[in-house]
Amino acid sequence: MIGYRIKVLRQKRRLSLTELADRAGIAKSYLSYIERNLQKNPSIQFLEKIALVLEVDVETLIGEETMVKGVKQDLEQEWIDLARKAVLTGITKEEFQEFQRFVEYTNWKKKHKT
């Protein structure tokens, strides 16, 4: 996701949301919406301003998604970080699988609610 990539790059450069917005000449609230993926389709002008401040090209912000058998695969760093954090806190694969089954059951139950 573009918002996540912007946030990661901003944090790597030790910039606050306000600093990045000010340097790029954009609204802090809009940048916040982008980073939180409440707004998912920023304009190319917005991306160019952000890329300039973050010292990357626009393509880096957009990122690349690969297609595997017609299914979009975009393994985001956020998921990797989440899994790593789970392991570090002591969650086992079995506990994670149990949680996943619980979520699937809850979703199934909502779907089949009469």
TrEMBL record:
CDD domains: HTH_XRE. Residues 66-104 form the Sin domain. PROSITE patterns: HTH_CROC1 (PS50943), SIN (PS51500). The keyword DNA-binding applies. InterPro entries: Cro/C1-type_HTH, Lambda_DNA-bd_dom_sf, SinR/SinI_dimer_dom, SinR/SinI_dimer_dom_sf, TransReg_Diox_bact_type. Keywords: DNA-binding. Residues 6-61 form the HTH cro/C1-type domain. This is XRE family transcriptional regulator of biofilm formation.
